[in-house]
User: Which sequence fits this backbone?
């Protein structure tokens, strides 16, 4: 996966251009074009990285950790 991140491709963002844009330029190791469906099957990791309600902002490859952005919800009830 490092060869993809070297090309600024976020393999952890399934809605990113690499997976969603039909005309995204990608030089595969075979020199052949690859369909969007095949990209998802071959490259997208089938793992849950961020908690529900959070979005992935990328990966810190130096420490192999996902960077998540989560909205804070204050569920503290007000006393009346």
Assistant:
């Amino acid at each position: 996966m490092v060869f993809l991140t070297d090309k600024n491709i976020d393999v952890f963002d399934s809605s990113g251009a690499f997976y969603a844009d039909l005309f995204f330029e990608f030089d595969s190791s075979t020199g052949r074009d690859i369909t969007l469906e095949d990209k998802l099957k071959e490259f997208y990791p089938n793992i849950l990285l961020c908690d529900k309600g959070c979005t992935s902002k990328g990966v810190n490859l130096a420490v192999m950790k996902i960077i998540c952005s989560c909205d804070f919800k204050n569920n503290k009830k007000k006393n009346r």
The beta strands are 54-60, 65-70.
